[in-house]
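Roadblock/LAMTOR2 domain-containing protein, pasting as requested.
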Amino acid sequence: METIERVQKHKEALTAEYSEAIPGLTALARSMVRELDPLDDLEFLRVRSAKHEIMVAPREW
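C-alpha cells follow.
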C-alpha cells in the first residue's frame, strides 16, 4: 500500500511541474508559428519523449 501512495504522489509532483512549464512552452510555439505566418495561430502542440507525451490544445477565452 505504501508503494502505491508513493507512486500517486510522484505523479502529482510531475503533473505540477508540467503544468508550470506548459504556458511558457505554448507561448514559444505560438510565437514560432506566427513568425512563419503572421495570420496563422497555434492549433495544437504535441511534445513526446521516450516515457511521456503531452498534448496541448490552447484556446483564447
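Note for the archive: Helices lie at 2-36.
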